[in-house]
Specification:
Layout lengths: L2 H7 L3 H29 L4 H5 L9 E3 L15 E11 L2 E4 L5 E6 L6 E2 L4 E5 L2 H36 L5 H33 L2 E3 L4 E6 L6 E2 L15 E4 L4 E8 L11 E6 L5 E10 L9 E8 L11 E7 L2
Parallel strand pairs: 1-13
Antiparallel strand pairs: 2-11, 2-15, 3-10, 4-6, 4-9, 5-8, 6-7, 8-10, 11-14, 12-13, 12-15, 13-14
């Protein structure tokens, strides 16, 4: 091979530098593309929470103080988390004691009522007539007793004067006893009719809120249903104490061992996830639901407020001691 051919095969130094610079540019471009891909793939906001990276959240904890440590905004002390429904501990339907017609109803749905407040008046014309009749009978019974007492006192004087016989005394004594017994019976009748008359005034048995208004003025009401969809109503109102709330939970049987009576809980309403309320296990059903494989548990909420609405969803965290 001659010198001219060797000269053609030799790589010049400027070509080496040019090729080395191109390789460096390729490596730099790959590194930049890798950084951009990692940034775009990193989860943000809701995706980060779903991926298990929970952002810090500040919750307002409401309720009475407890010896257990319930740190707001954390679930590290929760042994179990279950979802249930907020319910009134007691729901009372106010019903009539006899068949009658609503003469006046003074509340509507959502109104606040107090214990003993008059909420409904029934037509009392029949009870008034019966009460007047019973009171007239009472007056006659009192007159009969007074007359029997006078007759008996008079016959005692005649017997002392040897004018009347002992038999007359016995007859008048028994007549007086019968008149007094009749008076007591009439007094009892008046008390019974008065009770029926008082039943025409319907009062709220508790402090609470009207959940439902079930009748209107002029409607016929009855203490029992006679069947069918067009019979008389059997209740005037449904009321409940909104300051006495619980969360009703269907607990899976696999989790029953983690829950016990009086266990401290944290209640978080789904509508206001930033709020948290203290509670405790107030009731565990004595038997399970075989079809569902669950046990009903009720968690009493301490110091509920206006943000807790019955029948809405709430999450309950059972606290581990």
């Amino acid at each position: 091979m001659d010198a001219q051919q060797l000269e053609k095969l030799r790589i010049r130094s400027e070509d080496k530098h040019r090729r080395r610079g191109g390789i460096q540019l390729i490596f730099a471009a790959v590194a930049i593309a890798t950084v951009v891909a990692i940034y775009l793939a990193w989860p943000k906001g809701e995706e980060r929470r779903l991926a298990g990276v929970a952002p810090s959240t500040n919750r307002t904890v409401t309720g009475a103080s407890s010896s257990s440590s319930l740190s707001a905004g954390t679930s590290t002390d929760a042994v179990l988390t279950v979802t249930g429904y907020i319910v009134n501990r007691e729901r009372i339907e106010i019903s009539p004691r006899f068949l009658g017609v609503v003469k006046w109803i003074g509340v509507k749905k959502g109104d606040t009522v107090t214990n003993g407040q008059v909420v409904v008046l029934l037509d009392d014309s029949e009870q008034k007539a019966r009460l007047a009749e019973a009171q007239a009978q009472l007056s006659n019974a009192r007159v009969a007793v007074e007359k029997a007492e006078i007759d008996y006192a008079r016959v005692l004087q005649l017997i002392a004067a040897n004018i009347e016989t002992k038999q007359m005394e016995d007859d008048l004594r028994l007549r007086l006893a019968a008149a007094r017994a009749s008076l007591k019976q009439t007094e009892a009748t008046v008390a019974l009719v008065q009770t029926h008359f008082d039943w025409t005034v319907i009062r709220s048995p508790i402090d609470g809120v009207v959940l439902e208004k079930l009748v209107d003025q002029g409607e016929l009401v009855s203490p029992q249903s006679f069947g069918g969809g067009r019979g008389p109503s059997t209740a005037f109102l449904a009321v409940a104490n909104t300051k006495d709330l619980q969360v009703e939970i269907d607990l899976n049987e696999a989790d029953v061992a983690k829950v016990y009576l009086n266990q401290e809980c944290r209640v978080i309403p789904e509508a206001y996830t930033e709020k948290s309320y203290r509670g405790f296990v107030a009731e565990m059903a004595p038997e399970a639901n075989r079809q569902k494989g669950t046990l009903q548990v009720k968690v009493q909420i301490r110091d509920p407020d206006k943000f807790l609405t019955p029948e809405l969803t709430a999450t309950v965290e059972f606290i581990q001691k």
